[in-house]
Amino acid sequence: MENKVTSATAEQTQKLGKQLGGCLRGGDVVALIGDLGAGKTAFAQGVGEAFCVKGPMTSPTFTLIHEYLGQIEGTEVRLVHMDLYRLQHPEEAEVIGVEDAFQENAVCLIEWPEIIEDYLPDDRLIVEISGSGEQPREIIFRAKGFEWEHRIKGMTEVI
């Protein structure tokens, strides 16, 4: 299943992230695909807003992984935000503990997931963001798993 949405601004991209955040629960993995400057971090910040993350969420470009505490329906959950742009080899995912984050008490947002394709769970959501600069963004939600199709059915317009 595939849903497409157009976002005219970074604020709209962030709102879409917040909307998706309301659909997420522990154990979920979201793969964020897009070029530099496409809006992956803005989208992740929206998810963080939905999780009531305190403090600023920034791209983990140099640290590779940032972890935040948030809440889903009153239950504490870890929001793990990864940026794997700097990885050179898939095996590096093991060294930094990517798979350790795939737990029931965590939601994982992974920027540049392509390099670790073989390590990703089969059941995941792919969010592909196209566009850069002042151009509108086309955001495509691709469900990998039956349950995702049901959960993202309403992700067709910006709130």
Automatic annotation (TrEMBL):
One of its GO terms (cellular component) is cytoplasm. Keywords: ATP-binding, Cytoplasm, Magnesium, Metal-binding, Nucleotide-binding, Transferase, tRNA processing. One of its GO terms (biological process) is tRNA threonylcarbamoyladenosine modification. InterPro entries: P-loop_NTPase, T6A_TsaE. It is found in: Cytoplasm. Belongs to the TsaE family. This is tRNA threonylcarbamoyladenosine biosynthesis protein TsaE. It comes from Desulfosporosinus fructosivorans. The gene is tsaE.
